[in-house]
Amino acid sequence: MKFHTEILTWSTLIQLLLIIAIAIVLRWLLRKGVNLVVSAMLRTAKKRDEAMGLGRMLPKTSERQTQRTKTVGGLLSNLGVAIILTVAILAGFSTIGVKIGPILASAGIVGVALAFGAQSLVKDFLSGLFIIIEDQYGVGDTVNIDELGGVVEEVGLRTTRIRDFNGVAWYLRNGEILKVGNISQGWATSFTDISVHADEDPDEVTRVLNMVLDELAAAYPDSILEQPKVLGVGDITGGTMTFQVWTKCVAGTQFEVIRAMRQMAKTAFAEARIRGAF
C-alpha cells in the first residue's frame, strides 16, 4: 500500500507528465528535422542533376529521388522515435521507483551477445542503408556488381536481388558488395563506327551522316542530351572506310538511339547511293 501511495503523489504525477511532454516535443522536433533533411537532400539531388546537364530528365528522376529520400526519412524518423520512446519509458520507471540499473545491465549483456553473434547482419543492414541513402542503384537499374551484370529487381536493407541477362536471380548480401557500376544513372557517351566503301567521297558521307544525326536528335529529344557529332574518318582498312559518331544520351537509352541511328544511316546511304562496306 505504501508503494502505491508513493506512486500516486502529485510530485510523481507531475514528473511523469513532464516526461511525456518532453517526449512529445522531442518527437515533433525530430519530425521537423527529418523533413528539413529530406527537403535538403531533394534540393541537392536536383542541383546535381542540373549541373550534370540532366535537366530534361528531371521529371523522370524526381519521383525516384522523392521515394528514396522519403524512405530514408521514414527510417531515420522511426529510429529516432524508438530511441525517444525507450528513454521515456526508462525515465518513467525510474520516476515511480523501479530500479533501472539491473534492466540496463541485462540489456547491455544481451546487446553485446547479439553484437558478436550478428556482426554480419549488422554490416548488411548498415550497408543497405547507405546504398539507399547514397542512391548507388535502384529497382530497374542496369548494374555491374563485382563480376555480376544484370537488372536490379529489389533493394532491401539486408540483400539486393539482381536478375542477370540469362534470367537467373541472384541474391547479394549488401555487406559483401564492394564495387558497383550503374549503367542507368546519369548520362552515357557512345562512340559508334559507321563503315562505308573506301572509294566513297568522305565529304559526301559526312554530309549524309549529319543529316541523319539531325533527324535522330529530332526523333529522340528526351534521350539525346547534346547534338550528336560526326568525328570524321577513324580508320581505312582494305576496302572499308570507317566514320566515328559521338552521342551523349540519358543513361540506359543509348542502345536504342544507336540502333535507330544505324538503321537511319543505312536508309540514307541507300537513297544517296553510298555503298556500304564489303
Automatic annotation (TrEMBL):
The keyword Transmembrane helix applies. The keyword ATP-binding does not apply. Residues 193-274 form the Mechanosensitive ion channel MscS C-terminal domain. It is a multi-pass membrane protein. Pfam families: MS_channel_1st, MS_channel_2nd, MS_channel_3rd. Residues 83-119 form the Mechanosensitive ion channel transmembrane helices 2/3 domain. It is found in: Cell membrane. Residues 121-184 form the Mechanosensitive ion channel MscS domain. One of its GO terms (molecular function) is mechanosensitive monoatomic ion channel activity. Belongs to the MscS (TC 1.A.23) family. This is Mechanosensitive ion channel protein MscS.
